[in-house]
Amino acid sequence: MYLEMKHITKSFGDFSVSRDVNFSVEKGELAALLGPSGCGKTTILRMIAGIEHPDSGDILIGGKRVNDIPASERRIGFVFQNYALFRYMTVYDNIAFGLQVRKIPHSAVRARVNELIALTGLDGLEKRYPNELSGGQKQRVAFARAIAPEPDLLLLDEPFTAIDAKIRKELRQWLRDMIHRVGITSIFVTHDQNEAVEVADRIIVTNKGSVEQEGGASDIYRLPRTAFVSEFIGEPVIVEDFGRLKGFEKGNYERAIIRPEFVEAFKSDNEHFRDMLPFSQNGIIRDITFKGNAYELHLSVNGTELICHRSPERRAIYVGEEMNVIVYRLFAIKGNQAMLMQNKNFMEKDPDGINLEKYLYAEGGYYVE
Amino acid sequence: MGMSDNKKRNITRLIMIAVSTLFVAVMLVMPLFMVIINALRKGISFYLKAISTPTVISAFKVTLIATVITLIVNTFFGITASILLTRYSFRGKHILQTLLDIPFSISPVIAGLSFIMLFGRMGWAAPALNAINEMLGLNIRIVFAIPGVVLATIFVTFPFVSREIIPVLNAVGSDEEEAASLMGADIFTIFRKITFPHMKWALFYGMVLTTARALGEFGAVNALSKTRGETFTLPLEIDALYLSGSADSIVAAFAVSSVLVLCTIVILILRCIVEGKSKMNASDRDKTGKLSEGIGYVP
Fold this sequence. Notes:
Chain A is an alpha+beta fold.
């Protein structure tokens, strides 16, 4: 474990921002601290950096306790939310600053800065001031500036919020590639689950000052373990009375989370779904929203509202049309626990497992209830 | 049919321009103009003689000393206070912030009198002052001496510098300083390379205002300065000349006044340049930071 947070607590006055926070990040990993706004994730980042100090608990970097080591000696690079580029310095001076204050010889500074400018594709912009740069260029400068002194750990506070939605996607990819190329252990804070899932190797989901779940990006997405995570990640639709859905029994669960990709809606004459007709139930299309690469269908199924996606390549549909609907699986919630529940009919009435093979997730990644 | 909205707006604008122009002309430009006219009423040679009498020269010197010392002290103090108030949080911060504004809300005469109460022969600080004088074999006097004039001037111009810098420092935020400190920069480097460039023009503007006010201060200084030709500043000298009543001395009072008016005009021009620069600077380097509009309180 390269970074370890052990039993961290922190409060500002009466307000508790971290309650027994525990997580760890491996060397070379790119981890995301994901959580809603105001859940204390930025404070965690600032405590790792040494800008804030925990009330209790240990922060270990490379096996060494760093609680009492001042921020500037922790060998950490920090990318601020709005980059905090030095407005009165050129791009070159911004990147060089961290090296110059360390009294590194002039020629070595120049070599390192030029290397970083080439690496981040900022050639020709050395003499510009931050306000003469685009959002993406600013992020590159902030990144170059943070890694210039060759830190052991890179921390990024909401690195994409200051950027237009249009180029955000492009920059996510860029940052991910760049971090992997440099090979630096990195942690970034985000409230955007898409961003976390897309960029991070590992996700640490936080809520109200404590860690809800940590794990690989796809594990977190596919197998949320708590009510909070299952409602926070993906496109959740909350269904109270999910016993009304064919193939499910509510038992003593309180409610269910059903994502659009868990729901199939097809026309009754669809050959492809002929074997599955007996497992389906009727649903009326209440609303259709065009999303470009898919339609979003709002369905009313036996008194419950469900959402599913449909490819525009498939046959035309209309509002009010009756469809055959199957829910493959859902997350059943009890207390703060989330359990994956598969459609019972597929398990019981499909002895050859043809449909299971076809439409259920591989069993390896799931525990089937 | 009534007038179109556009036309109405145009007329409103014209009326407002007329009113404010008239007001500025009658209240501000005309009086200054009268000073120049009256100063030159008895010819150039009289004018030159009037502004070079021993008492006027002495008043020049006292004014210069008071202004320079005030500028140095208040610049240093203003920068310190601004950084303290914008970058640190501590108990009693709001009280300190309010106290800083006292010179704006208190009459300068009261300020002057309070210095007499403090440092005068019967004042609280008098025993301490006497002790120091005795110990070091000195004879430092504050009240009715140049140190008193300097103190009074410092008092009335106290908040100008910090008043200009604080809004700028608040607007730019402390992110850059935090980033620099995280990279291992010490506070002097941070001040020199990050904080100072941000506050540079606001500081200069504050210094210009301080100078203008220091040159023209009358009330507080009047309370603490009673010896013409020794501790009188220019405004006091002008007052003395005018009150002495002879036709010649009244013209002389205007002649000396015209020198102060000239100083003010130079400062106004400086101010315009600084304002332009800092605005340009603001749009040039800093699109988010808001330029302070000043405090609208020019002597």
